[in-house]
């Protein structure tokens, strides 16, 4: 088959054991492989280790089951690894016998790590320390992984992060102040994580922030800061939290805001007239708060 360097077989309704694709593992020059959205319903084959030039591997939502083999960790050139399973509430893939430290131990070049929906079930210090060595990591997505907290201080070393998704885990932790120093953050999603304490205001003020969602954390307190000029927010969701206080006049600086959900909180005071400047808003929910007037009156 010559020197094939990229192969995309996603959305092809492929079924059966991936080991039946024996010719696949002979493509030793392969740098990019996408098998996402198929129906293998089998384990991830250890023969993947033969593809040691891979920089991109996407096995997401492909029906893979069982333990993730340690051989995946031998793919030391990987920049992107996506093993996520987001179409089922069952944890079909697991990292129980092969823990996360073993999986990422050789990933010195990794930029994106997507493990959503994989049963990992480790405590905060363990998974935090394992990931803290991935200094080039830009995307970390580990929603619904059975992770527990707290959010360890070792995560402060991931200063290159632009996207952080840890939704639907049992972190039961305050949000550390150090996230406010992550100057490249565009997406911060920790909804339904049992967060508590006071949310750091400096996270709202990261200039690059587009999406901030910490909804469904009933014990999370906080208030809104003064927003800087030319804020980049597209989505701000604080619904079903214990945020309180007034909406600042400076909210009109969020000119790109398309979704604002502050429902079921404890906000109060008068809604600022400047909200009428938010011309890109497509979804606005301020219900079940203690506002005393409406900009729509």
Can you give a write-up of this model?
With 297 residues, the chain is mainly β. The model has no long low-confidence stretch (mean pLDDT 93). Helix 2 links the parallel strand 7 and strand 8. The radius of gyration is 21 Å and the shape is elongated. It contains 3 helices and 19 strands.
List keywords for this structure.
five-stranded parallel beta sheet, single chain, elongated, 297 residues, twelve-stranded parallel beta sheet, 3 helices, mainly beta
In brief, what are we looking at here?
This protein has 297 residues and is mostly beta strands. The chain contains three helices and 19 strands. The N and C termini lie far apart (69 Å).
Strand order of the largest sheet: 1-2-3-5-7-8-9-10-12-14-16-18
Morphology: elongated
Note the main sheet. Answer: 12 strands, parallel
Summing up helix and strand content along with how strands pair, one would put the structural category as mainly beta
SSE blueprint:
Layout: E1 6-8, E2 32-34, E3 56-58, E4 66-67, E5 80-82, E6 93-94, H1 100-104, E7 112-114, H2 124-132, E8 139-141, E9 163-165, E10 187-189, E11 196-198, H3 201-204, E12 211-213, E13 217-222, E14 235-237, E15 241-245, E16 259-261, E17 266-269, E18 283-285, E19 290-291
Parallel strand pairs: 1-2, 2-3, 3-5, 4-6, 5-7, 7-8, 8-9, 9-10, 10-12, 11-13, 12-14, 13-15, 14-16, 15-17, 16-18, 17-19
